[in-house]
Amino acid sequence: SGNVAIAIDGPAASGKSTLARILADQLGLVMVNSGAMYRAVTWKVLREGVDSHDAGAVIRVLRETILECGDDGRYSTIKVDGIDPGDELRSEAVNANVSAVSAVPEVREALVALQRDYLKRASVVMEGRDIGSVVFPDTPYKIYVDADEEVRAARRRDAGELDAVSKRDAADSRRATAPLMVADGATVLDTSDHTIESGVAAAIEILKAQG
Ligand code: C5P
User: Fold this and answer.
1) Which of 7, 83, 134, 182 could join 142 via S-S bond, C-beta 3.0 to 4.6 A?
2) To which H or E segment does residue 201 belong?
3) What are the pLDDT digits (tens) for 34-60?
4) Pocket of ligand 1 (CB under 6 A)
5) Distance in angstroms (rounded) separating the CA atoms of residues 104 and 125
6) What's the ipTM?
7) Is the separation of the CB atoms in 132 and 9 below 8 Å?
8) For 179, phi and psi rounded to 5 degrees?
9) Pairing between strand 124-128 and 187-190?
10) Domain that holds residue 40
């Protein structure tokens, strides 16, 4: 298809979600939050009372779950067995277990397929950890968003996020399958000294240079 994918990867609290949302709005593309898909599977795993570190049990839950990934014209939406979990996707319990669930290769395989389906329907800005490296390795448009540890700590306090984000980042970076990394061809954008506006402007310049 002639659809275009812009891949935005980076650690938690780097500013990638804000950047992805504004880019999608400005460019008229659909913004897809791939983290919500890993969170949705984790939400179901916890609901079933399954240990997130028991990969076999996680895979069984995955097989029994109906994930409906769509969009409202601007942003991705998700339903788990017909239910939108809403804010529960961002609960402390999900934060604490999502890295274990997302390290299971079968989970990644299923969700990567659903992520690629989006591009068959529309041009997208997709944010995550492995969008430039695994989901859309052939797109020329790849930004790896980063920020200093202190800046990220302040941002997650502002966001009211109380979990050990650095633990999650460490797990996401060290896993065997699709670890968080700067993808081949990606440009690193450090947002530490940027305002939201100047970060968006810098991202637009990067995308122009990549196209
Ligand atoms: O982006 P967000 O912080 O909501 O992602 C939650 C978790 O989902 C990450 O910590 C990571 O474990 C997993 N994830 C992933 N690959 C992606 C997006 C998210 O493994 N593309």
Assistant:
1) 7
2) helix 196-210
3) 999 999 999 999 999 999 999 999 999
4) 12, 34-35, 38-39, 98-99, 102, 128-131, 168, 172
5) 25
6) 0.99
7) yes
8) -65, 155
9) unpaired
10) 5-210
CATH number for 133: 3.40.50.300
**What percentage of the chain exceeds 90 in pLDDT?**
89
3-state secondary structure 61-121: HHHCCCEEEEECCCEEEEEECCECCHHHHHCHHHHHHHHHHHCCHHHHHHHHHHHHHHHHH
Minimal-distance CA residue to ligand 1 atom 15: 129
How far is the C-alpha of 115 from the C-alpha of 77, rounded, in Å?
12
Tens of pLDDT, residues 10-37: 999 899 999 999 999 999 999 999 999 9
**Distance from C-alpha of 137 to C-alpha of 185, rounded to nearest angstrom:** 9
Domain count across the chain: 1
User: Within a 10 A sphere around the Cβ of 138, how many other Cβ atoms?
Assistant: 7
Distance 38 CA to ligand 1 centre (A): 6
The structure tokens listed for 143 are 């930004």
Residue 42 to residue 37: CA distance in whole angstroms: 9
